[in-house]
Structure to design on (600 residues):
């Protein structure tokens, strides 16, 4: 399914006139400093924040005007940043909440839930309490819930936050293999470079650049948007482009 | 691997069946014992005769029939309804404000109901409303006020709701205390009984409205169990799962308030049932509302029937207000829960 955002404007949350497309099967990264409007923009796509202007379309249907909340949830699933963990769900029970927008038999639900857990490699921990899982395992359970939702569009809001490096790589490998149309807000620019087909750079609520990672993440753009000096090299292990950073000149002089 | 919940799989239907079977047993026991103990066989005959023929049986004395059918039976059934309603309302509110310390009174509606009830007791009827009617109206008015104070730009946030409810509660309790100070000595016992909750003096005619409301609301909530689960996971996730979060939360608040108001209008402010019963059930079967709600309704009802039986039999002829018993049983449980929460965190 194709995702098309055009002229999306959110007053509180600071998103002004964003145009963005994700082609079917594409993994598109959304990057930008804190407060640049990444999460707010994603919310307009998974129907948690109505845009004040502009349209959000999934597969040519306007998410806010043509689709009900339930119909939209059947198409678009999300792994959000914060998930309340105060209540004592097991991994399988948490994945089961992904079936909320669907009406299917309990037997069918159970099979879908089991398959989703197996897909993320968590089938042997289905009956573990969610709060006892590691950070990486929790994110995989949340991804399994998104899979159980059977959406054809996946939204990830900084899914690798607070994960150790192995778990970060595993999670993104997993997302990559799913080959679902995906829009992901990412903090780590090297992860974004390594896994995304295209990137959109958000700064103060506007798209300032978009395209293949290698074309977008120029030292000039990184200096302007993130306020850092950057060098684009090659990761000796993977042969992929690799960014290294240093504080801006004047900051170093101050020290 | 086995589920970490204490009761799972095939043991869940067994637990549900046990609780269901306990309902008629405890009801008959509660009608049998009291200031005067009656033969259980007579109790059974009176109840079945009334249920099948609508008339008292010929072979039981008039006074026994009166005690069984017109005094103990309605108050026991009211205890069942009230316990179920308060427990379900508490469970829903804990989910809606996503706070394990929430109970039916966190939104201040009991304080509103209490003030209105005490006002009628001390100052006399207002606009033709009796104590029950005034309590119901007070609860509704308070809910409207809390919703107005707790919303911001049309959206209800859990924290604002709780803070608005708690703040308003203090104000209303202050007003209630003032009325108590000005009350005549002969009115004080009635006020105290109302504030602490009691099912004494229940009549069959009082039961229809709360019974219909409790059954209808619990049934509807059960149909929303999956959406309630989703709401537990946060507003963002719930929205992504296709739930119109703000509207759903508003409806749930209204339903929980209706349940609470319907119960306290006839039974007064019975504390702790709505707090501890949902927690006790979750400890056993986990947080899934499809499993918890039916058990919470049954356990709440059974708990209050048992509490009322204790209230009548512990120190006869004195009858204790229900709130004293539920608090005595509830506080140790609550402190234990607090210790456990701290240990987990």
């Amino acid at each position: 399914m194709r995702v098309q955002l055009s002229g999306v404007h959110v007053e509180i949350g600071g998103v002004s006139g964003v145009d963005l497309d994700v082609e079917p099967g594409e993994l598109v990264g959304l990057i930008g400093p804190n407060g640049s409007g990444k999460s707010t923009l994603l919310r307009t796509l998974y129907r948690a924040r109505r845009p004040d202007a502009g349209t959000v379309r999934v597969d040519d249907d306007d998410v806010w005007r043509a689709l009900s909340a339930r119909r939209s949830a059947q198409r678009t699933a999300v792994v959000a940043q914060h998930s309340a963990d105060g209540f004592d769900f097991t991994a399988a029970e948490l994945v089961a909440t992904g079936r909320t927008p669907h009406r299917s038999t309990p037997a069918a639900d159970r099979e879908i839930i089991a398959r989703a857990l197996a897909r993320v490699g968590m089938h042997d921990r289905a009956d573990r309490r969610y709060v006892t899982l590691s950070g990486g395992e929790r994110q995989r359970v949340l991804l399994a819930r998104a899979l159980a939702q059977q959406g054809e569009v996946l939204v990830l809001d900084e899914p690798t936050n607070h994960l150790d490096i192995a778990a970060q790589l595993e999670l993104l490998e997993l997302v990559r293999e799913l080959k679902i149309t995906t829009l992901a807000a990412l903090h780590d620019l090297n992860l974004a470079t390594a896994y995304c087909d295209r990137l959109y750079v958000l700064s103060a609520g506007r798209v300032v650049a978009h395209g293949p990672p290698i074309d977008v993440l120029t030292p000039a753009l990184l200096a302007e948007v993130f306020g850092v000096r950057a060098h684009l090299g090659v990761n000796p292990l993977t042969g992929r482009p690799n960014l290294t950073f240093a504080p801006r000149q004047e900051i170093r002089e101050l020290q | 691997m086995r589920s970490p919940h204490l009761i799972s799989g095939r043991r869940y239907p067994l637990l549900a069946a046990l609780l269901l079977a306990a309902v008629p047993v405890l009801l008959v026991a509660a009608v049998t014992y009291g200031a005067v103990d009656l033969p259980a066989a007579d109790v059974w005959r009176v109840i079945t005769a009334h249920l099948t023929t609508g008339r008292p049986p010929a072979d039981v004395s008039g006074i026994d029939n009166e005690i069984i059918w017109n005094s103990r039976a309605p108050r026991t059934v009211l205890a069942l309804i009230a316990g179920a309603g308060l427990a379900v309302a508490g469970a829903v509110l804990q989910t809606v404000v996503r706070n394990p310390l929430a109970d039916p009174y966190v939104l201040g509606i009991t304080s509103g109901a209490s003030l209105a009830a005490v006002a009628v007791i001390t100052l006399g009827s207002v606009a033709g409303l009796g104590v029950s009617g005034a309590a119901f109206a007070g609860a509704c008015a308070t809910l409207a006020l809390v919703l107005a104070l707790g919303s911001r730009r049309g959206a209800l946030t859990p924290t604002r709701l709780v803070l608005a409810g708690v703040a308003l509660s203090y104000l209303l309790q202050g007003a209630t205390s003032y009325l108590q100070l000005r009350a005549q000595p002969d009115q004080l016992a009635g006020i105290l009984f109302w504030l602490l909750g009691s099912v004494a003096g229940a009549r069959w005619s009082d039961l229809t409205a709360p019974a219909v409301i409790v059954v209808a609301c619990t049934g509807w909530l059960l149909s929303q169990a999956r959406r309630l689960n989703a709401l537990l996971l946060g507003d963002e996730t719930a929205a992504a799962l296709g739930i119109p979060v703000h509207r759903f939360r508003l409806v749930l608040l209204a339903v929980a308030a209706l349940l609470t108001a319907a119960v306290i209008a006839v039974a007064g402010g019975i504390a702790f049932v709505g707090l501890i019963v949902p927690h006790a059930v979750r400890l056993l079967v986990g947080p899934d509302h499809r499993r918890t709600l039916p058990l919470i309704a049954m356990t709440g009802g059974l708990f209050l029937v048992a509490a009322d039986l204790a209230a009548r039999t512990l120190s006869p002829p004195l009858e204790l207000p229900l709130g004293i018993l539920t608090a005595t049983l509830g506080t140790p449980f609550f402190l234990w829960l607090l210790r456990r929460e701290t240990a987990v965190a």
Observations:
- Chain B has one domain: 11-344.
- The first helix of chain B runs from residue 11 to 32.
- DSSP finds 14 helices and two strands in chain B.
